[in-house]
């Protein structure tokens, strides 16, 4: 592809720059993992509270969800990194200034809040699908609220909320590219930009970004699909993770007559995982 | 709202009720339950003695199931008092005012009561064994070893010794209901509430489930409050039958009397309709 760029120059600059690209990749992974973890916690807490029958609990949760779901991630980032410090400038005595000046932390928090608010809706909606009779059975066994939620209701809603959470986590990973606007957060997008600017090799650099984010998203998705298969198996639906990961049961190999059955089971497990 | 005569009757009857007698395990005093404007139960008074098995019969909508759900605290009591072993279940009379009992006290009392539901309501995210041991371990604080041993003997008792590690979803309706019975019994309840436990089952497995309940009735001293349409079972098992209609007790008495020679025309009509269908 000589008409696009000089290959030799490209690989030369790439090898010179590979350490920084790997650093950027690591930052992106950290943003996705820490931001995802924070978003998960926020989603669970807000989602459960938003489903409460008590208005004084449900009301504030709803306001928080609608607010953080409605604001742009980009604007939120700008606000947190440029507006928030003004309060500390005006009042130097306020505690926690280091936190406000830690732009990596701000990136994590902004991602967590924004996607956590989305996730809260998935959590809340999934919890409502657990039938009331399940709650009644837990009451008949005198379980405490926390016990009911942790051991009975949440595990049943879990399988249902996982596909939505998978979606949101992949969104969050890609959304983390926006965080490169923050000073001092040198994620993959930031480093790719750095590489592009002096070398002017844009095609291949952009391609690296494209492929890397795709692979990261694929890894997240596969991991979440495994969680989903496990959750479904625990509810008595679909094969166990072990059965899915074992390519073919050894007993089916020598027996050719058993082939149609084993392929049927194979498609079953695939469709189960995709759902 | 009670009529003037009712309220005076309630006032006079309420005096000895502030110190309910030791004997009844369940006591309903002027119980009222309304859903919005719909009054399901009104001025209901009855008591169940320890070890007594009482069957509630009557047309659907007569409030039988609501009575069980009130005892299990699945419904809020809108009027009157329910005492379990002489202790107020949800509300008590404090200096003439009806106040709610503390949540902690309610919870304490609730552990003595078990319930089996029409739709089994097993937890699909747990195995059969886990369904049975979950509450004994985490609510009653029993050791895992004891709870598991007890669960296995209960599974033996309900005829499912080999299903401990099965998933509820892999069991038939009759098997699920037998697990649900084992789950309720694992808590060693003093009171067992059976809410139309065979209504959702295939006809051919109804007898299996009833046989297990008969055996529980014969071998334990559990007080039972039963709502069922299985009149033969009710006749065999219960000490007392109460006929309900429109939230009122139409008639109550020994099953032999009620089923063969009821006093009230309403009871006769209901029984001929139910037994005729059988």
TrEMBL record, chain A:
GO cellular component, one term: ATP-binding cassette (ABC) transporter complex
Domain ABC transmembrane type-1: residue ranges: 25-224
Bilayer-spanning residue ranges: 29-51, 63-87, 99-118, 157-182, 202-227
GO molecular-function term, one example from the UniProt record: transmembrane transporter activity
Biased composition (Polar residues): 264-275
SUPFAM superfamilies: MetI-like
Region (Disordered): 240-275
Swiss-Prot/TrEMBL keywords: Amino-acid transport, Cell membrane, Membrane, Transmembrane, Transmembrane helix, Transport
Record-stated family: Belongs to the binding-protein-dependent transport system permease family.
Identification of the protein by name: Polar amino acid transport system permease protein
Lineage, highest ranks first: Bacteria, Bacillati, Actinomycetota, Actinomycetes, Micrococcales
Membrane disposition: Multi-pass membrane protein
Any GO BP annotation: amino acid transport
Cellular localisation: Cell membrane
Top-level taxon in the UniProt lineage: Bacteria
InterPro entries per the UniProt record, alphabetical: AA_ABC_transptr_permease_3TM (IPR010065), ArtM/GltK/GlnP/TcyL/YhdX-like (IPR043429), MetI-like (IPR000515), MetI-like_sf (IPR035906)
Automatic annotation (TrEMBL), chain B:
Keyword annotations from UniProtKB, A to Z: Amino-acid transport, ATP-binding, Cell membrane, Membrane, Nucleotide-binding, Transport
GO cellular component: plasma membrane
PROSITE patterns: ABC_TRANSPORTER_1 (PS00211), ABC_TRANSPORTER_2 (PS50893)
Ranges where the ABC transporter domain occurs: 26-271
Pfam family for this entry, one: ABC_tran
Renumbered residue ranges of the record's region Disordered: 1-22
Protein name from the UniProt record: Polar amino acid transport system ATP-binding protein
Gene Ontology molecular function terms on file: ABC-type amino acid transporter activity; ATP binding; ATP hydrolysis activity
Membrane topology: Peripheral membrane protein
Biased composition (Low complexity): 1-21
Major site of localization recorded for this protein: membrane
Localization terms from the record: Cell membrane
Protein family membership: Belongs to the ABC transporter superfamily.
Record's signal peptide: none
